[in-house]
Amino acid sequence: MSDSFDVIVIGGGPGGYVCAIRAAQLGLKTAVVESRGNLGGTCVTVGCIPSKALLQSSHLYEEAHHSFASHGIKVGKIELDLATMMARKDDVVKQNTTGIEFLMKKNKISYIKGYGRIAKAERDAHQVTVKDLDGKEATYTTKYVVIATGSEVTPLPGVSIDEKQVVSSTGALTLAKVPKSMVVIGAGVIGLEMGSVWRRLGAEVTVVEFLDFILPPMDGEVRKQMQRILEKQGMKFKLGHKVTGAKPGKDGVAVTIEPAKGGPAETINADVVLVAIGRRPFTQGCGLDAAGVKMSNRGFVEVDENFQTNVEGIFAIGDVIGGQMLAHKAEDEGSVCAEILAGQPGHINYDAIAGVVYTWPEVAGIGKTEEQLKEAGIAYNVGKFPFTANGRARANGDTDGFAKILADAKTDRVLGCHIVGPAAGDLIMEVAVAMEFGASSEDIARTCHAHPQLAETVKEAALAADKRALHI
Ligand code: FAD
Ligand code: NAD
Fold first, then answer.
1. Which of 161, 305, 321, 422 suits 262 as a labelling partner, its CA being 20 to 30 A distant?
2. CATH match for 166-277 among 2.40.420.20, 1.10.10.10, 3.50.50.60, 2.60.120.10
3. Contacts of 268 (CB under 8 A, 6+ apart)
């Protein structure tokens, strides 16, 4: 392997590997350094992909229990084979990691296995040292370094994660048996997704959340509706509470909680505790300090609008630079960063990045929430349409939720969209495209939507923004 490159990307997650592909497509000699032993990062190995595999399997299990009969499908005794479910999940992960390795070969990208560190920061000739799994070191020279080292679980003081009884999202993806009870700390995306998986498989799940509501960044109406739906499904919530300790023992974990605003402590016992209070940037041992790269006081790498750090030729993308910690945001930053390195202009519209929670029903949001518009003093129109009034949702037997479009009161430009409902994550993408093109809600309303489609709910919400929904 050559020891000199145009670009070395440190970290082979969705940000890093996509950056490497785009750089190679643009003719740059590229290497990607990854220490995990496979490519795909958090997302593919312990994040998006395995969690979605388990969400899908557990959704089918729940459907078999609760929905098949109403469709006139009789099944015998339904049994859970958790080992097979887990093996399927592992296989899905493997298909993805090997697929990415193939993409590296196809694009003639050097895949360097090991831990990367910036050994010397020198304009146009930075040095990156990689320590491989046997401890052997090799040094490479490169014009540009892209830091794409991602994030890690935020620990909670007083609660130590052993990945058996007290687990992070990683341990929650590999439990060997269904716990009778589970306490989830944090009603964010991971808490609700992984909490849903284990509740569907039979655990009694209690979610403890510091704030007075679930899913903090989402639109307020969406948060309330989703909490009601999850409660109806059997998930319990302890809102406005913080966890102050978790003591594992022979009979489970004793979790101490206190009201966030002060008050008497109480103890909840659970077989398993999932800590899901957020993620923090990961830059350990990367040589950033020695290279003089500036970081925020929360540990995020600081970059300018071109993803360049304060050190010329050193760039950073993905979770490690903060913002929405999402795989598609990291991927787009990877592509755009590579285009900038190749001398092209690059641009990301951070106002049109959808956030999706893959519970059932799903939750999806893009652009501004009503709370944000009110705070900014922007006059807006609201169009809302429930799935109960959508023919396809009725046919599917999936009528929980609604779609809501927020449009500028003066110009009708779409400012945001928030959906709770079946396949909300897919449905929101037409609004993402509309927002990218600066569309009005009238543009969505006048677009002919195929019938019978769940997407007609979005069209009707757009019509409702002008008080002329047709089917309600
Ligand atoms: P990462 O994916 O974290 O990749 C960084 C890589 O760098 C890692 O593989 C790490 O091993 C490697 N690395 C670090 N330091 C070094 C070094 N010095 N040398 C070599 N290699 C190094 N996002 C979504 O959009 N949709 C989802 O459904 C979703 N589900 C998730 C579920 C879970 C349980 C979790 C934990 C996260 C989920 N996310 C989801 C978030 C998503 O995984 C991250 O936003 C995304 O992976 C960030 O990509 P990245 O490339 O910045 O970093
Ligand atoms: P999160 O930020 O989504 O939610 C953390 C929750 O924990 C918040 O509601 C917060 O108020 C609460 N919290 C914080 N400290 C607490 C405490 N001491 N006690 C009780 N509650 C506390 O974080 P997450 O769910 O851990 O997810 C991490 C990241 O991974 C997110 O940024 C998310 O974007 C990403 N992710 C995305 C997806 C997806 O896109 N579907 C799925 C999983 C993870």
1. 161
2. 3.50.50.60
3. 183, 206, 208, 238, 254, 255, 257
Ligand 2 binding site (Cβ under 6 Å of any ligand atom): 156, 185-191, 193, 208-211, 216, 242-243, 276-279, 325-326, 356-358
Using the predicted structure, report yes or no on whether residue 157 has a pLDDT greater than 80.
Answer: yes
Q: Which residues line ligand 1 (CB under 6 A)?
A: 10-16, 33-36, 41-43, 47-48, 51, 115-116, 148-151, 169, 190, 282, 285-286, 318-320, 325-328, 330, 358
Tokens 């003719």 sit on residue = 27
Mean pLDDT of the chain: 97
Q: Which amino acid is it at 285?
A: G
What pLDDT shows up at residue 133?
Answer: 86
Kindly tell me if the per-residue pLDDT of 46 is higher than 90. Answer: yes
Task: Give the phi and the psi of residue 431 in degrees, each rounded to 5.
Answer: -75, -35
Say which CATH topology domain 4-152+281-348 has: FAD/NAD(P)-binding domain (3.50.50)
pLDDT digit string, tens, across residues 425-457: 999 999 999 999 999 999 999 999 999 999 999
Number of the ligand closest to the Cα of 256? 2
The CATH code for residues 352-464 is: 3.30.390.30
Coil, helix or strand for 77?
A: coil
